[in-house]
Amino acid sequence: MKGLTAPRWFAGRARLPRGEGPWPWLVAGSVALSLLMLLALVLLLAVRGLGHFWPSPVALVSLEDGSQLAGVKVREERRFDGAGSEWLLRTANRDLEGGIWQWVAVDAIESVSHPQDLVVMSRTRWGDFIGRLVALEDASGNQQEQAAWNAFEARLAEIQALRDERDRLRGDVVLPLVRRLERGLDSEARERLAAANARIRGLQRQMIGETLILESADGQRLAQPIEQVLRAWRPNAMSLPDKLGAWSRGVWRFLSEGPRAANTGGGVWPAIFGTVLMVLLMSVLVTPFGVLAGIYLNEVAHQGRLTRVVRIAVRNLAGVPSIVYGVFGLGVFVHGIGGTLDTWFFSDQLPSPTFGTGGLLWASLTLALLTLPVVIVATEEGLARVPEHQREGALALGATRLEMLARVVLPMTVPAMLTGVILAVARAAGEVAPLMLVGVAKLAPQVPVDGDFPFLHLDRKFMHLGYHIFDVAFHGGDVQAAMPLVYATALLLVLVILVLNLTAIFLRHHLKMRHVALPRH
């Protein structure tokens, strides 16, 4: 049939790859756009959050009416009427001026300078102070004006050492002894507690004595007790290495210290620890139940109508709003199971609840229930991808069904299981709504782990980075002042989730490589 044979030139053209149109470019563009948006988000959080710890220069603004202001320029905006622009200055000095922000019209500014003697102080009361250090006054009333800054720095370092010793005693000695006394009468603990409290009072007395004479830019003077000063710096006189050192110390304090001033100051270490601990405990709880449920649905249960209904129900549970799980956890875990445990085992402490209130255990169980459908679905998908001849070969070699599941099927499904755990971690670490009902606290300076038996206290409340962001952003008295901390905490939450996910991804890759079939030669 030579007449039906295609010409040689046509056959050659038929072997050319067909054009796929614009779809590969659209897919690649979507992936690139997603990555750019993610990088832009992280960059925004990093600039706004980490920039908060940089010692910004303090400007001395002289106005046309002869008044002066000292503050840090935050931003410049156009006026609503369009007639010029305004500067937003963080002037601090709440105790002198009643607020820490002030808008200044650019047209009203006569001159701007940056004197090196301007001081920024972080205080335990009234927030920051911006102005000048006039003198250092001792307990007898003698004032030192010359070299007052050097003397103040030396004395502040001594006070900081005393403050660290006091905080160490309170956390490592006093709190464990108080909990020990709460469990029963202990004369030795009482004596040690009295000695520790006496030592703390002695440290407090050593911090008291000197007074700082401060002056604001407009000439108002203030007597500031030195024991209320946390830190002080002169940003206009700092070199670049000095600013880098101050920035690194500020970031470290943010990561290692507890919160203060109603969460608007200090650090977020308890929130970091609480978030990681809750996610790890949730993973330990959800993984076995999710894996066993997936194995039962795919390998054990009869594949009929009821099994299909259960699968549909599991997939629908993944779309239930998280606040519904929080209500379920509050009603079943906290009030139901927790109240019953208090009645059975902690009746002598009622009406003060032990497990009948929100805590780490109930929060972890609630989030485990929330992420359970994700692990079940991922496990089923992994089991479905195992070739059927792997099962048949194991059974043909004499293995029982249990041995076939444990030694052949499950090792090949571990990467899929870990994929489900990764998705569960990513969702649980960022959840806030259910935690508000089952255990998260606005302020919990002590982490749920200490040296007292049983070491991990599942009944205690804990802090969470997501709830900390919500509380600082919406429940603070000054949203403008809280926004840098919101950005910094949000960046930290993203990094914590990234580290947890990368850990699970590396573990999944390691297990996957162990079960990859070697090529035949």
Automatic annotation (TrEMBL):
Q: Which residues form the ABC transmembrane type-1 domain?
A: 272-504
Gene Ontology BP annotations? phosphate ion transmembrane transport
| InterPro entries from the UniProt entry | MetI-like (IPR000515), MetI-like_sf (IPR035906), Phosphate_PstA (IPR005672)
Q: What's the chief localization of this chain?
A: membrane
Subcellular location(s) per record: Cell inner membrane; Cell membrane
Q: Which UniProt keywords apply?
A: Cell membrane, Membrane, Transmembrane, Transmembrane helix, Transport
- Tell me which GO cellular component terms the UniProt record holds: plasma membrane
Report whether Transmembrane helix shows up as a keyword of the record: yes
Q: Name one Pfam family in it.
A: BPD_transp_1
Query: In the record, what terms sit under GO molecular function?
Result: phosphate transmembrane transporter activity
Look up and give the membrane topology term.
Answer: Multi-pass membrane protein
Any stretches that span the bilayer, and where are they? 23-47, 268-297, 317-341, 361-383, 404-426, 485-507
Q: Which family does it belong to?
A: Belongs to the binding-protein-dependent transport system permease family. CysTW subfamily.
Would you tell me the protein name for this molecule?
Phosphate transport system permease protein PstA
Lineage of the species this protein comes from: Bacteria, Pseudomonadati, Pseudomonadota, Gammaproteobacteria, Oceanospirillales
